Amino acid sequence: MNVNDFKNKYIPSEFLEFNPRLYAFIIMLIVGLSAFLIFPVKEISGYIDPFYSPTIFILPFVGLYRLTCYAYRKDYNRHIFKHPIGCDLKNRLDSMKRTYTGETSGLFKIENLHRYFLYVSILIVPFFYYDFYTSLFINNIFVFRLGSVLLLVNAIFITLYVLSCHSLRSLIGGRKDCYSCMSYGAGIKNLYDKQSWLNKHHEQLAWISLVFIIFVDLYLRGLTAGMPLDITFLKL
Amino acid sequence: MTNKKVKFKIYRKDPKISNDYRYDEFDVPMEEGMVVLDGVNYIVEHYDSTISVRWNCKAARCGSCAAEINGYPKLMCKTRVEQMGDVITVNPMKAFPLVKDLVTDVSINFEIDKKIPEFTPKNMGKKPWTIYDIDVNRAQEFRKCIECFLCQDTCHVVRDHNTKYIGPRHVIKAAALDMHPMDVLDRSESLTKDMGLGYCNVTKCCEEVCPEHIKITDNAIIPEKERAADNMYDPIMMLIKKLKNKSNRDKK
Protein backbone atom coordinates (compact mmCIF):
# COMPACT_ATOMS: atom_id res chain seq x y z
CA MET A 1 0.00 0.00 0.00
CA ASN A 2 1.50 3.32 -1.00
CA VAL A 3 1.10 6.60 0.88
CA ASN A 4 -1.80 7.80 -1.27
CA ASP A 5 -3.73 4.56 -0.82
CA PHE A 6 -3.15 4.75 2.94
CA LYS A 7 -4.34 8.35 3.01
CA ASN A 8 -7.47 7.59 1.00
CA LYS A 9 -8.33 4.55 3.07
CA TYR A 10 -7.65 5.71 6.62
CA ILE A 11 -7.45 9.50 6.74
CA PRO A 12 -10.68 11.37 6.05
CA SER A 13 -10.29 14.35 3.73
CA GLU A 14 -11.42 16.66 6.56
CA PHE A 15 -8.04 16.11 8.24
CA LEU A 16 -6.13 17.06 5.13
CA GLU A 17 -7.85 20.39 4.51
CA PHE A 18 -6.41 23.65 5.83
CA ASN A 19 -8.56 24.12 8.91
CA PRO A 20 -7.47 26.43 11.77
CA ARG A 21 -10.48 25.28 13.84
CA LEU A 22 -9.19 21.70 13.72
CA TYR A 23 -5.65 22.77 14.57
CA ALA A 24 -6.94 24.80 17.52
CA PHE A 25 -8.96 21.81 18.75
CA ILE A 26 -5.96 19.46 18.47
CA ILE A 27 -3.73 21.94 20.29
CA MET A 28 -6.34 22.27 23.08
CA LEU A 29 -6.49 18.47 23.40
CA ILE A 30 -2.70 18.13 23.55
CA VAL A 31 -2.29 20.97 26.05
CA GLY A 32 -5.15 19.64 28.21
CA LEU A 33 -3.91 16.06 28.28
CA SER A 34 -0.31 17.15 28.92
CA ALA A 35 -1.49 19.33 31.82
CA PHE A 36 -3.28 16.34 33.37
CA LEU A 37 -0.11 14.27 33.20
CA ILE A 38 2.37 16.97 34.22
CA PHE A 39 0.27 18.54 36.99
CA PRO A 40 -1.71 15.67 38.52
CA VAL A 41 -4.18 16.39 41.34
CA LYS A 42 -5.32 12.97 42.36
CA GLU A 43 -6.50 13.65 45.88
CA ILE A 44 -6.88 16.68 48.11
CA SER A 45 -8.57 16.75 51.55
CA GLY A 46 -10.31 13.44 50.85
CA TYR A 47 -11.61 14.54 47.44
CA ILE A 48 -10.58 12.53 44.40
CA ASP A 49 -10.37 14.48 41.15
CA PRO A 50 -12.94 12.95 38.73
CA PHE A 51 -10.44 13.04 35.87
CA TYR A 52 -8.23 10.64 37.83
CA SER A 53 -11.03 8.32 38.92
CA PRO A 54 -10.34 5.43 38.95
CA THR A 55 -7.18 6.17 36.97
CA ILE A 56 -6.01 8.77 34.45
CA PHE A 57 -5.32 5.91 32.01
CA ILE A 58 -9.07 5.44 31.58
CA LEU A 59 -9.26 8.94 30.08
CA PRO A 60 -8.68 7.82 26.44
CA PHE A 61 -11.76 5.54 26.61
CA VAL A 62 -13.88 8.27 28.15
CA GLY A 63 -12.51 10.68 25.54
CA LEU A 64 -13.43 8.27 22.76
CA TYR A 65 -16.91 7.86 24.25
CA ARG A 66 -17.37 11.61 23.96
CA LEU A 67 -15.68 11.87 20.55
CA THR A 68 -17.93 9.16 19.07
CA CYS A 69 -21.06 10.43 20.86
CA TYR A 70 -23.87 11.42 18.48
CA ALA A 71 -24.34 14.75 20.29
CA TYR A 72 -20.70 15.78 19.91
CA ARG A 73 -20.58 14.43 16.35
CA LYS A 74 -23.16 17.05 15.42
CA ASP A 75 -21.11 19.74 17.13
CA TYR A 76 -17.70 18.94 15.69
CA ASN A 77 -19.01 18.14 12.22
CA ARG A 78 -20.61 21.57 12.25
CA HIS A 79 -18.17 23.74 14.12
CA ILE A 80 -14.81 22.10 13.44
CA PHE A 81 -15.20 20.39 10.09
CA LYS A 82 -17.89 22.79 8.77
CA HIS A 83 -19.91 20.03 7.11
CA PRO A 84 -22.02 22.25 7.28
CA ILE A 85 -21.49 24.98 9.87
CA GLY A 86 -25.23 25.74 10.02
CA CYS A 87 -28.50 25.16 8.22
CA ASP A 88 -28.73 28.75 6.98
CA LEU A 89 -27.97 28.16 3.32
CA LYS A 90 -25.97 31.34 2.87
CA ASN A 91 -23.41 30.63 5.54
CA ARG A 92 -22.96 26.89 5.67
CA LEU A 93 -19.37 26.81 4.35
CA ASP A 94 -19.91 23.46 2.71
CA SER A 95 -19.71 23.08 -1.04
CA MET A 96 -19.38 20.68 -3.91
CA LYS A 97 -15.70 21.61 -4.13
CA ARG A 98 -14.93 19.91 -0.81
CA THR A 99 -14.32 16.18 -0.66
CA TYR A 100 -16.65 14.45 1.75
CA THR A 101 -16.82 10.84 2.91
CA GLY A 102 -18.94 11.24 6.04
CA GLU A 103 -18.73 8.30 8.40
CA THR A 104 -17.80 5.86 5.66
CA SER A 105 -14.03 6.28 5.64
CA GLY A 106 -11.22 4.97 7.84
CA LEU A 107 -10.94 7.01 10.99
CA PHE A 108 -14.59 8.06 11.18
CA LYS A 109 -15.69 4.43 10.90
CA ILE A 110 -14.79 4.07 14.57
CA GLU A 111 -17.97 6.05 15.29
CA ASN A 112 -19.89 2.89 14.49
CA LEU A 113 -18.38 1.32 17.61
CA HIS A 114 -19.65 4.02 19.98
CA ARG A 115 -21.43 1.34 22.02
CA TYR A 116 -18.12 -0.21 23.17
CA PHE A 117 -17.02 3.11 24.66
CA LEU A 118 -20.47 3.30 26.24
CA TYR A 119 -19.87 -0.05 27.96
CA VAL A 120 -16.58 1.23 29.42
CA SER A 121 -18.28 4.46 30.55
CA ILE A 122 -21.06 2.53 32.31
CA LEU A 123 -18.36 0.62 34.22
CA ILE A 124 -16.69 3.88 35.28
CA VAL A 125 -19.80 5.70 36.54
CA PRO A 126 -19.98 3.90 39.97
CA PHE A 127 -16.46 5.18 40.80
CA PHE A 128 -17.78 8.75 40.88
CA TYR A 129 -20.34 7.79 43.52
CA TYR A 130 -17.65 5.92 45.45
CA ASP A 131 -15.51 9.07 45.38
CA PHE A 132 -18.44 11.07 46.73
CA TYR A 133 -18.94 8.50 49.51
CA THR A 134 -15.27 8.49 50.53
CA SER A 135 -15.22 12.30 50.54
CA LEU A 136 -17.80 12.21 53.36
CA PHE A 137 -15.36 10.71 55.84
CA ILE A 138 -12.06 12.09 57.06
CA ASN A 139 -10.34 9.91 59.67
CA ASN A 140 -13.67 8.12 60.21
CA ILE A 141 -15.40 11.41 61.01
CA PHE A 142 -18.45 12.32 58.89
CA VAL A 143 -18.08 15.68 57.17
CA PHE A 144 -20.40 17.19 54.61
CA ARG A 145 -18.63 19.83 52.55
CA LEU A 146 -19.16 21.88 49.40
CA GLY A 147 -16.63 19.69 47.56
CA SER A 148 -18.73 16.60 48.27
CA VAL A 149 -21.82 18.33 46.87
CA LEU A 150 -19.87 19.14 43.70
CA LEU A 151 -18.65 15.54 43.39
CA LEU A 152 -22.24 14.28 43.78
CA VAL A 153 -23.66 16.73 41.24
CA ASN A 154 -20.85 15.78 38.85
CA ALA A 155 -21.66 12.08 39.32
CA ILE A 156 -25.36 12.74 38.64
CA PHE A 157 -24.68 14.75 35.48
CA ILE A 158 -22.33 12.07 34.15
CA THR A 159 -24.84 9.33 34.99
CA LEU A 160 -27.60 11.19 33.15
CA TYR A 161 -25.31 11.82 30.19
CA VAL A 162 -24.32 8.16 29.94
CA LEU A 163 -27.88 6.90 30.47
CA SER A 164 -29.27 9.20 27.77
CA CYS A 165 -26.96 7.73 25.10
CA HIS A 166 -28.43 6.88 21.68
CA SER A 167 -26.60 3.54 21.62
CA LEU A 168 -28.13 2.62 24.97
CA ARG A 169 -31.52 3.59 23.55
CA SER A 170 -31.02 1.05 20.80
CA LEU A 171 -29.68 -1.53 23.24
CA ILE A 172 -32.55 -1.40 25.72
CA GLY A 173 -35.32 -1.74 23.18
CA GLY A 174 -34.87 0.54 20.19
CA ARG A 175 -33.82 -2.33 17.98
CA LYS A 176 -37.02 -4.29 18.73
CA ASP A 177 -39.89 -4.06 16.28
CA CYS A 178 -42.61 -5.94 18.12
CA TYR A 179 -42.90 -5.38 21.86
CA SER A 180 -46.22 -7.19 22.15
CA CYS A 181 -44.58 -10.36 20.76
CA MET A 182 -41.94 -10.49 23.54
CA SER A 183 -41.94 -11.54 27.17
CA TYR A 184 -41.97 -8.40 29.33
CA GLY A 185 -42.52 -6.39 26.10
CA ALA A 186 -44.66 -3.73 27.84
CA GLY A 187 -41.97 -3.25 30.49
CA ILE A 188 -39.24 -2.99 27.86
CA LYS A 189 -41.26 -0.44 25.88
CA ASN A 190 -41.89 1.52 29.06
CA LEU A 191 -38.18 1.57 29.83
CA TYR A 192 -37.44 2.54 26.22
CA ASP A 193 -39.94 5.42 26.40
CA LYS A 194 -38.43 6.68 29.67
CA GLN A 195 -34.92 6.52 28.23
CA SER A 196 -36.17 8.23 25.05
CA TRP A 197 -37.37 11.14 27.19
CA LEU A 198 -33.90 11.40 28.71
CA ASN A 199 -32.34 10.98 25.27
CA LYS A 200 -34.07 14.17 24.10
CA HIS A 201 -31.76 16.03 26.47
CA HIS A 202 -28.60 14.13 25.51
CA GLU A 203 -26.90 17.07 23.86
CA GLN A 204 -27.51 19.41 26.80
CA LEU A 205 -26.36 16.72 29.22
CA ALA A 206 -23.23 16.10 27.14
CA TRP A 207 -22.17 19.73 27.47
CA ILE A 208 -23.35 20.28 31.04
CA SER A 209 -21.49 17.18 32.24
CA LEU A 210 -18.33 18.20 30.36
CA VAL A 211 -18.33 21.74 31.69
CA PHE A 212 -19.13 20.56 35.21
CA ILE A 213 -16.36 17.95 35.37
CA ILE A 214 -13.87 20.61 34.25
CA PHE A 215 -15.29 22.95 36.90
CA VAL A 216 -14.86 20.28 39.63
CA ASP A 217 -11.29 19.64 38.46
CA LEU A 218 -10.52 23.38 38.62
CA TYR A 219 -12.18 23.62 42.06
CA LEU A 220 -9.96 20.84 43.39
CA ARG A 221 -6.90 22.40 41.79
CA GLY A 222 -7.88 25.62 43.55
CA LEU A 223 -7.98 23.76 46.87
CA THR A 224 -4.56 22.27 46.12
CA ALA A 225 -3.22 25.76 45.48
CA GLY A 226 -4.42 26.70 48.99
CA MET A 227 -7.45 28.78 48.01
CA PRO A 228 -10.09 28.86 50.79
CA LEU A 229 -12.90 27.55 48.58
CA ASP A 230 -14.29 24.71 50.64
CA ILE A 231 -17.20 25.14 53.05
CA THR A 232 -18.06 22.59 55.72
CA PHE A 233 -21.83 22.29 56.22
CA LEU A 234 -21.84 19.51 58.81
CA LYS A 235 -19.32 17.67 60.94
CA LEU A 236 -20.26 14.78 63.24
CA MET B 1 -54.31 46.63 6.64
CA THR B 2 -51.32 48.69 7.75
CA ASN B 3 -49.39 51.18 5.61
CA LYS B 4 -46.22 49.18 6.03
CA LYS B 5 -44.73 47.62 2.94
CA VAL B 6 -42.35 44.71 2.70
CA LYS B 7 -39.86 44.28 -0.11
CA PHE B 8 -39.99 40.85 -1.76
CA LYS B 9 -37.04 39.70 -3.89
CA ILE B 10 -38.18 36.85 -6.09
CA TYR B 11 -35.75 34.54 -7.89
CA ARG B 12 -36.46 34.45 -11.61
CA LYS B 13 -35.09 31.95 -14.08
CA ASP B 14 -36.47 29.93 -16.92
CA PRO B 15 -33.89 27.26 -17.81
CA LYS B 16 -35.69 26.56 -21.08
CA ILE B 17 -34.91 30.09 -22.24
CA SER B 18 -31.66 31.02 -20.53
CA ASN B 19 -29.25 30.00 -17.80
CA ASP B 20 -29.19 33.54 -16.42
CA TYR B 21 -31.12 34.38 -13.32
CA ARG B 22 -32.21 37.61 -11.70
CA TYR B 23 -34.11 38.84 -8.67
CA ASP B 24 -37.25 40.89 -9.26
CA GLU B 25 -38.18 43.26 -6.46
CA PHE B 26 -41.72 44.13 -5.39
CA ASP B 27 -43.20 46.18 -2.59
CA VAL B 28 -46.07 44.35 -0.98
CA PRO B 29 -48.46 45.91 1.55
CA MET B 30 -48.28 44.06 4.81
CA GLU B 31 -51.36 42.68 6.49
CA GLU B 32 -51.68 41.22 9.94
CA GLY B 33 -51.06 37.50 9.98
CA MET B 34 -49.71 37.53 6.43
CA VAL B 35 -47.50 34.65 5.33
CA VAL B 36 -44.85 34.67 2.60
CA LEU B 37 -47.14 32.77 0.24
CA ASP B 38 -49.73 35.57 0.59
CA GLY B 39 -47.02 38.02 -0.47
CA VAL B 40 -46.00 35.94 -3.48
CA ASN B 41 -49.63 35.49 -4.52
CA TYR B 42 -50.18 39.24 -4.15
CA ILE B 43 -47.24 39.82 -6.51
CA VAL B 44 -48.61 37.32 -9.05
CA GLU B 45 -52.05 38.94 -8.86
CA HIS B 46 -51.02 42.61 -8.91
CA TYR B 47 -47.57 42.91 -10.49
CA ASP B 48 -46.38 39.96 -12.56
CA SER B 49 -48.53 37.00 -13.45
CA THR B 50 -45.62 35.23 -15.19
CA ILE B 51 -43.99 34.24 -11.89
CA SER B 52 -44.22 30.47 -11.41
CA VAL B 53 -45.02 29.29 -7.93
CA ARG B 54 -46.42 25.96 -6.76
CA TRP B 55 -48.83 25.80 -3.88
CA ASN B 56 -51.94 23.94 -2.97
CA CYS B 57 -53.41 23.77 0.52
CA LYS B 58 -51.97 26.92 2.17
CA ALA B 59 -52.27 25.07 5.46
CA ALA B 60 -48.86 23.38 5.77
CA ARG B 61 -50.36 20.02 4.87
CA CYS B 62 -49.36 19.45 1.24
CA GLY B 63 -45.71 20.55 1.25
CA SER B 64 -45.99 22.08 -2.23
CA CYS B 65 -44.80 25.60 -1.39
CA ALA B 66 -41.37 24.62 -0.04
CA ALA B 67 -38.75 27.29 -0.80
CA GLU B 68 -35.68 28.99 0.61
CA ILE B 69 -36.81 32.12 2.41
CA ASN B 70 -34.00 34.48 3.40
CA GLY B 71 -31.64 31.56 2.92
CA TYR B 72 -33.53 29.13 5.12
CA PRO B 73 -35.63 26.19 3.85
CA LYS B 74 -39.23 26.83 4.86
CA LEU B 75 -42.81 26.42 3.73
CA MET B 76 -44.02 29.71 2.27
CA CYS B 77 -47.48 29.13 3.75
CA LYS B 78 -46.14 28.67 7.27
CA THR B 79 -43.69 31.57 7.38
CA ARG B 80 -45.04 34.78 8.87
CA VAL B 81 -43.94 37.90 7.00
CA GLU B 82 -43.54 39.96 10.17
CA GLN B 83 -40.89 37.54 11.43
CA MET B 84 -38.73 37.78 8.31
CA GLY B 85 -37.64 41.43 8.34
CA ASP B 86 -38.23 44.22 5.83
CA VAL B 87 -36.66 42.41 2.87
CA ILE B 88 -37.75 38.87 2.05
CA THR B 89 -35.76 36.93 -0.52
CA VAL B 90 -37.49 33.87 -1.94
CA ASN B 91 -35.43 31.25 -3.76
CA PRO B 92 -36.43 27.84 -5.09
CA MET B 93 -35.03 24.72 -3.38
CA LYS B 94 -31.55 24.45 -4.81
CA ALA B 95 -31.13 20.73 -4.23
CA PHE B 96 -33.56 19.98 -7.05
CA PRO B 97 -33.59 20.80 -10.77
CA LEU B 98 -35.37 24.07 -11.51
CA VAL B 99 -38.52 24.02 -13.60
CA LYS B 100 -39.09 27.79 -13.53
CA ASP B 101 -38.73 30.61 -10.96
CA LEU B 102 -39.79 29.10 -7.62
CA VAL B 103 -40.84 25.72 -8.96
CA THR B 104 -38.50 22.74 -8.79
CA ASP B 105 -38.78 19.20 -10.06
CA VAL B 106 -38.87 16.93 -7.00
CA SER B 107 -39.76 13.78 -8.92
CA ILE B 108 -36.35 12.24 -8.17
CA ASN B 109 -37.69 11.58 -4.67
CA PHE B 110 -40.34 9.24 -6.01
CA GLU B 111 -37.62 7.35 -7.89
CA ILE B 112 -35.52 7.08 -4.71
CA ASP B 113 -38.57 5.75 -2.84
CA LYS B 114 -38.65 2.79 -5.19
CA LYS B 115 -35.16 1.74 -4.04
CA ILE B 116 -36.37 1.08 -0.49
CA PRO B 117 -37.44 -2.54 -0.07
CA GLU B 118 -41.20 -2.51 0.30
CA PHE B 119 -43.27 -3.63 3.28
CA THR B 120 -42.79 -7.38 3.63
CA PRO B 121 -45.17 -8.86 6.20
CA LYS B 122 -44.61 -12.15 7.97
CA ASN B 123 -47.20 -14.83 7.53
CA MET B 124 -49.71 -13.82 10.19
CA GLY B 125 -52.71 -15.85 9.11
CA LYS B 126 -56.04 -14.20 8.48
CA LYS B 127 -56.47 -10.49 7.98
CA PRO B 128 -57.29 -8.07 9.51
CA TRP B 129 -54.20 -8.23 11.72
CA THR B 130 -54.31 -7.17 15.31
CA ILE B 131 -51.72 -4.48 15.84
CA TYR B 132 -51.05 -2.97 19.25
CA ASP B 133 -50.35 0.67 20.05
CA ILE B 134 -47.05 -0.05 21.78
CA ASP B 135 -45.73 -1.57 18.55
CA VAL B 136 -46.68 1.19 16.17
CA ASN B 137 -46.65 4.47 18.08
CA ARG B 138 -42.94 4.96 17.39
CA ALA B 139 -43.41 4.89 13.63
CA GLN B 140 -46.54 7.08 13.79
CA GLU B 141 -44.25 10.09 14.04
CA PHE B 142 -42.82 9.35 10.59
CA ARG B 143 -46.33 9.26 9.11
CA LYS B 144 -46.58 12.98 9.77
CA CYS B 145 -44.19 13.60 6.86
CA ILE B 146 -45.88 15.80 4.25
CA GLU B 147 -43.15 15.23 1.66
CA CYS B 148 -42.20 18.88 1.32
CA PHE B 149 -38.58 17.71 0.84
CA LEU B 150 -37.17 20.63 2.83
CA CYS B 151 -35.02 18.09 4.70
CA GLN B 152 -33.61 16.85 1.40
CA ASP B 153 -32.95 20.45 0.38
CA THR B 154 -31.05 21.36 3.52
CA CYS B 155 -29.11 18.09 3.80
CA HIS B 156 -25.55 19.03 2.89
CA VAL B 157 -24.85 15.49 1.68
CA VAL B 158 -27.72 15.55 -0.80
CA ARG B 159 -27.12 19.17 -1.77
CA ASP B 160 -23.37 19.58 -1.84
CA HIS B 161 -21.82 16.16 -2.29
CA ASN B 162 -22.22 13.63 -5.00
CA THR B 163 -22.78 10.48 -2.94
CA LYS B 164 -25.29 7.66 -3.01
CA TYR B 165 -27.00 8.91 0.16
CA ILE B 166 -30.75 8.86 -0.37
CA GLY B 167 -31.46 11.62 2.14
CA PRO B 168 -33.40 12.05 5.39
CA ARG B 169 -36.92 11.85 3.97
CA HIS B 170 -36.23 8.40 2.60
CA VAL B 171 -34.45 7.15 5.70
CA ILE B 172 -37.58 7.91 7.73
CA LYS B 173 -39.60 5.92 5.25
CA ALA B 174 -37.21 2.96 5.62
CA ALA B 175 -37.24 3.36 9.42
CA ALA B 176 -41.06 3.39 9.50
CA LEU B 177 -41.05 0.09 7.62
CA ASP B 178 -38.25 -1.40 9.72
CA MET B 179 -40.05 -0.54 12.96
CA HIS B 180 -43.34 -2.02 11.77
CA PRO B 181 -44.18 -5.06 13.93
CA MET B 182 -45.37 -7.13 10.96
CA ASP B 183 -42.42 -6.40 8.70
CA VAL B 184 -39.72 -9.07 8.47
CA LEU B 185 -36.96 -7.14 6.71
CA ASP B 186 -34.07 -5.22 8.23
CA ARG B 187 -33.22 -2.42 5.81
CA SER B 188 -30.30 -0.97 7.79
CA GLU B 189 -27.67 -2.99 5.93
CA SER B 190 -28.94 -2.06 2.47
CA LEU B 191 -29.38 1.53 3.67
CA THR B 192 -25.69 1.56 4.56
CA LYS B 193 -24.28 -0.42 1.65
CA ASP B 194 -26.47 0.74 -1.21
CA MET B 195 -28.14 3.94 -0.05
CA GLY B 196 -25.24 5.76 1.62
CA LEU B 197 -26.54 6.02 5.21
CA GLY B 198 -22.92 6.30 6.41
CA TYR B 199 -22.58 9.65 4.65
CA CYS B 200 -24.98 11.25 7.13
CA ASN B 201 -22.89 12.93 9.81
CA VAL B 202 -25.86 13.68 12.11
CA THR B 203 -25.63 17.47 11.89
CA LYS B 204 -29.43 17.57 12.27
CA CYS B 205 -30.26 20.30 9.76
CA CYS B 206 -33.07 18.04 8.53
CA GLU B 207 -34.61 18.12 12.00
CA GLU B 208 -34.21 21.87 12.21
CA VAL B 209 -36.14 22.59 9.02
CA CYS B 210 -38.86 19.94 9.29
CA PRO B 211 -42.23 21.79 9.42
CA GLU B 212 -43.78 18.75 11.11
CA HIS B 213 -41.04 18.74 13.78
CA ILE B 214 -40.23 15.09 13.10
CA LYS B 215 -37.10 14.08 15.01
CA ILE B 216 -35.59 12.70 11.82
CA THR B 217 -32.05 12.21 13.10
CA ASP B 218 -32.75 11.06 16.64
CA ASN B 219 -35.68 8.80 15.87
CA ALA B 220 -34.94 7.46 12.39
CA ILE B 221 -31.38 8.01 11.18
CA ILE B 222 -29.55 7.17 14.42
CA PRO B 223 -31.68 4.07 15.14
CA GLU B 224 -30.94 2.88 11.58
CA LYS B 225 -27.22 3.58 12.10
CA GLU B 226 -27.36 1.57 15.33
CA ARG B 227 -29.11 -1.30 13.57
CA ALA B 228 -26.47 -1.16 10.83
CA ALA B 229 -23.77 -1.28 13.54
CA ASP B 230 -25.47 -4.44 14.91
CA ASN B 231 -25.33 -6.05 11.48
CA MET B 232 -22.04 -4.78 10.07
CA TYR B 233 -19.62 -3.39 12.65
CA ASP B 234 -20.24 -4.85 16.11
CA PRO B 235 -18.49 -8.26 16.23
CA ILE B 236 -20.27 -9.39 19.41
CA MET B 237 -23.72 -8.50 18.11
CA MET B 238 -22.93 -10.12 14.77
CA LEU B 239 -21.94 -13.34 16.55
CA ILE B 240 -25.09 -13.29 18.71
CA LYS B 241 -27.26 -12.80 15.63
CA LYS B 242 -25.47 -15.60 13.81
CA LEU B 243 -25.98 -18.02 16.71
CA LYS B 244 -29.62 -16.95 17.03
CA ASN B 245 -30.26 -17.53 13.34
CA LYS B 246 -28.54 -20.93 13.51
CA SER B 247 -30.64 -21.96 16.50
CA ASN B 248 -33.82 -20.81 14.70
CA ARG B 249 -32.83 -22.85 11.65
CA ASP B 250 -32.12 -25.90 13.82
CA LYS B 251 -35.54 -25.60 15.47
CA LYS B 252 -37.21 -25.60 12.06
List keywords for this structure.
heterodimer, A: 236 residues, mainly alpha, three-stranded antiparallel sheet, two-stranded antiparallel sheet, 5 strands, 56% helix, globular, B: 252 residues, alpha+beta, five-stranded mixed sheet, two-stranded antiparallel ribbon, 10 helices, 7 strands, 37% helix
Notes on the protein architecture:
The complex is a heterodimer of chains A (236) and B (252). Chain A has nine helices and five strands. With 236 residues, chain A is mainly alpha-helical. Chain A has a three-stranded antiparallel sheet with strand order 3-4-5. A two-stranded antiparallel sheet of chain A has the order 1-2. In chain A, strand 1 and strand 2 form a beta hairpin. In chain A, helix 3 (59-67) packs across helix 5 and helix 7 (166-174) packs antiparallel against helix 8. The longest helix of chain A is centred in the C-terminal third of the chain and has 23 residues, at 202-224. Chain A is globular, with a radius of gyration of 21 Å. The mean pLDDT of chain A is 92. The A-B interface holds A 70, 73-74, 77-78, 83-84, 86-92, 94-96, 98, 100-104, 109, 112-116, 166-167, 169-170, 174-175, 177-181, 185-186, 189, 199-200 and B 68, 71-73, 94, 132, 134-135, 154, 156-157, 160-163, 165, 178-183, 196, 198-205, 208-209, 218, 222-223, 225-230, 232-234.
A few lines on this structure:
Chain A has 236 residues and is mainly alpha-helical. In chain A, 56% of the residues lie in helices and 6% in strands.
**Helical stretch count of chain B?**
10
State the helicity of chain A in percent bands.
Answer: 55-70%
Multimerization status: heterodimer
Shape of chain A: globular
Spatial order of strands in the largest sheet of chain B? 2-1-5-3-4
**Stretches with pLDDT under 50, minimum 5 residues of chain A:** none
Strand content of chain A: 5-15%
**End-to-end Cα distance of chain B:** 74 Å
Give the H and E element order of chain B: EEHEEEEEHHHHHHHHH
Radius of gyration of chain B: 22 Å
Residue windows where pLDDT falls under 50 for at least 5 positions of chain B: none
